[in-house]
Every structure is written in structure tokens, then in C-alpha cells.
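This is your field. Have a critical look at the following sequence-structure pair:

***
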Amino acid sequence: MGNFSGIHYGLVSYMTVLNNLCAFKTFWIRATLIGAILCSFVTPVFAEDDAKFEPFTFVQLCDTQLGMGGYEHDIQTFRQAVKQINEMDPDFVVICGDLVNTANDTSFVDFKTIKSDLTVACYCAPGNHDVGKPDSKALKRYRETIGEDYFSLKHKGYTFVFTNTQLWKAPLKGESEKHAAWVAQTLSEAKQNQSPVMMVGHFPLFVKKPDEKETYYNLPLETRHQLLDLYKQNGVLAVLAGHTHTTIINDYDGMQLVNGEVTSKSFDKRPLGFRLWTVESLQTANHEFVPLTNQFEELKQK
């Protein structure tokens, strides 16, 4: 009974704090604080013993973006990536947005046709070229054509959280608030379940430094810091992104931030390809670059 009384007293105290959250100016801040408060009752220790952990691999694809490097070129390079991935047989594939360059029926159909040749599951996050400056029409089209624009999945003790980063970059009233609340709640549940988290989205949090000014290539500064705090509070081990067409690997207090190579057109002249992740434990995930093979003349970037 003593333990229950202590928990009850703590809950009453926290409810007092929760009742004052309405004073905050943004729904995002309220959602973040609520998630943090709920999680404060949970000890951040992974439930599953690493000795029993079953390692797994997955592929990070970025910016297939059919039409960015030449439409036929990008179709061929995407097909080549699919062929190599099938030979590697990872557990699954994630695509970090910009599936197509122009969001029309032809591009989406071609993307889905090539994607369907994968022999493993493939999960996509939307990019700015997929949903534009989001409005209800663009989101409806994406959801009906590709699938949900934000969702989570669990795999061998890990939680993968797929986000619609456009709802942070170019907020849409109603949709952005729902998205923010869902992210906070999903991370809260992962922490309660003692599950390490990998975030998957399109825009990186930052390119070089956490305090850099907002540009086309990163998220707004205030949102960025809120997310970094939220991610650290809830056991996020890695943030996978695309968008920059430049390979960027950062570390933020032990959290990996990885913008991988692309299959369409790179801006840093790196070879086209993708990242293969090997998850070895509940605390360790490594990645390596896999270049596209057979990049003969007609597949080279123009």
C-alpha cells in the first residue's frame, strides 16, 4: 500500500503541473512536456537482455526521387538498388522521403512498380517533393497512393518511428498538431516499453551544428531543439534522413544523425548507393555505404 500511496502522491503532483500546461504558447511544447512527464515514472533501462538479442539488418534508401537525375536514369538506378537489396536480403528497407521528383500519377505508379520488386518489406517516409508545402489535398493524395505519412513499427525490440517532416518545416494547422502529439505519445510508449528508437524522416534536424540558422536543408531552430530534447529523453539512438543529396553523418550526445547516399543525383559527387545498417544489440547500431554496382555509362550522373 505504501508504494501505491507514493505513486498516487506523485501522480497528483504531476497532474498539478499538467493542469498548468495550457499556459504554454504552442501545442508542440505541451505535447512534448506531457510526454516527458509521463515518461518520468519509467526507468530508461532496456527490458530485453542483450544476451538474448537477435541482430538484424535493414537498408536506408534516400531520395529515389524519380526525375531528379533524369527520369529514365533514376528508374534504372532504383531498379539496380532493388536488385542489390534483394541479393543482400535484409530484414526490411526504409526510404527517407522524396520518392519522386514530381508528385503525379505517372511518377507514383513507376515508383510503386519498382518498389514492388523488393522481396522484403519496404516502409516510406514522405519528402517535400512528395507532399509539397502540405495541404489537405496533397496529404490525401499521398495517403491514398503511397500510404500513411507517419506511423511506427516494432522489430526485434526496436521501435521505428516514421515522421512527416514537412509538417515541421511548413506547418499545416490541425495536421501539424496531430503529428506532434502522435510523435510525443509514440516516443512515450516506446520508453515505457523500454524499446530503443530509430527515427525515420526526410529533413535532417541540422546539417553541421545544432544551433545553425534555418535554411532549405534543415528544420526550424525552435522545433529542432524541441525535437532534440524529446529524442534524448526517450531513448532515440539514431535519426535517419535524406533531402540534402549529400552524405552527412553527425553525432548529438551519442545519438546518430545520418543522411545517407541517394540513388538519383548526389550533390557531393559521391557514388550512388544506400546505407546498410547492422543492429547488433539494444544499444549498438552500425552502418556502412553500399555503392550501386554496374554503374555503366548510361547510369552515370549527367
User: Anything to note?
Assistant: The radius of gyration is 20 Å. The chain has one domain: 2-299.
